Amino acid sequence: MSGRWWRLRRGPGSADGASRLRRRRNLLIAVVAAAAIAAGGGLLLASTIKSPAEQAAQTSAPPPTQLTAPVTRQVITSTVLAQGAVHPPPEVAQLSGADSGGSGPNGELPVVTRVFRPAGSIVEPGQPIVEVAGRPLFALRGSVPAYRNLVPGETGTDVSQLQLGLESLGYPVGSDTPGTFGAGTAAAVSAFYTALGYPVPAQQATVATAKGGKKSVAEPMVPLSEVIFVPRFPARVVKVAGPVGQEASGSLVTLSVGSPSIAGQLSPGNAALVRPGMRVQISDAATGLSRAGRIASVGARSQTKGSISGGVYLPMKVVPSRPLGAALAGHDVTLTITAARSAGPELAVPEAAVFARADGRLYVTRTGHHGNVTVPVRVLGTGDGLVGVRPERGSLAPGDRVVIGTGYARGLS
Prior knowledge:
Layout: H1 2-9, H2 12-48, H3 52-59, E1 64-70, E2 72-74, E3 77-87, E4 91-95, E5 112-115, E6 122-123, E7 128-132, E8 135-141, H4 157-168, H5 183-196, E9 202-208, E10 214-220, E11 227-230, E12 235-240, E13 251-257, E14 261-266, E15 279-284, E16 289-298, E17 314-320, E18 332-341, E19 346-350, E20 355-356, E21 362-368, E22 371-383, E23 386-391, E24 401-408
C-alpha cells in the first residue's frame, strides 16, 4: 500500500500541486516586499512633512549676538580731508630786441647765434642763457623786471638789483651808493663782461675835462636786451629762442621760478578745525606721490571759482616739505590734515561703544567670561571714529572688549 500511495502522489496530479505551492510562495514574497516598500515610503514621507511649529522654529531669525571691539591705548588724532590743485610756478620772460625796441645797439638783426641753456635746463645767477647777434642774455636776482638800459648816473631799484647781483658773483661796486650807478658799478660791469668773454657794452657820453673842455668817452652799461631779473633761483628754462640762425621774435627766454605750488580747497564746515601751521600729507594716486607739508594760510572768504569738487571752498596755501617736480603741475592732490591730537596715549574705544543713560552719564559695556559689566566713563576727546575715555568707576584696560552693537549669526550644526 505504501508503494502504491507513493506512486499516486507522484502521479500526474502531483505536478499541479507543486505549481500551486510555488505560486503561493511567490505571492507571499511579493506581499512582504510591498509592505517593506510601503513602510519605507511612509518613513520618508513622515520625515519630510513638518508641523507648523517645526517650520516656524526653523525659519525664525537666529538669536542676537553681541558685536565687540577691543579697548586700545593710543594717541587720539582727528584728520580732515581736503583737495588741492598743483599750480605751475610763476614765469618771467625777456623780449627779443625786435619786440623791445628794434634791432641791436648797432643795428644788428636779432638772430640767435648760440643757445647756452636749452629748454628744461636749470639757470643760476650770472649764467648766459642765449646769445643773440653775438651778445649774451644772462639772469640776475631781482623782483623788479628789467625795463630800461642801465647806464652810469641812473638810480632806482633796478640799479640796486644789478649791484647786489654783481657783488654776489664776486664783482664789488666799491663806494657807490646803493641804487646809484656810479664809477664802482661801471667797473664791476666791465669785470663781469670780461669774465664772460664778451666785449663790454658801452654808451658814448660827453664829460668835462680838467681844463674846462669836453670829451666823448665810452661808459660801461648793461643793455635792456642782455639782462633778465629773476625773483628766485634756481630757475628753469621753459622756452628759449632758436634754433641758431633763426631771427628771434617774441620772448628770447621764458623762465619758471621756483617749484609748483599747491592751492588747497577746504570745506567751510571744517574751517574751525584747520589753522596755519598744521601738518598735512600730500598724496597723488596718479603718480604715487606722498609728501609731507604744512598749512601756510587759510582764507576767510569762501569761493567757487576753480572748485575741484564743484562746491564752495575756503582757499588754503600749502607748503610741501620738499619742492614738487615740474611734472606734477596741473594735477589734483589729496590733502590729509592732522587737525587735533591728544596730549598723549589714552584709553580708546569706538564711538559706538559709548552710550548715555537717563542719569546723564556716559557708559561702556565691558564683556567677558563672566558676562557684561557697565562701566561709567569720562570722554577725553574724539577723533577718526575713536573716543578717548577714562573709567570713573570699575576697571577698563587695553585688551578688554566692549560692546559696540548687536548682530545676527546662524550657527552651523
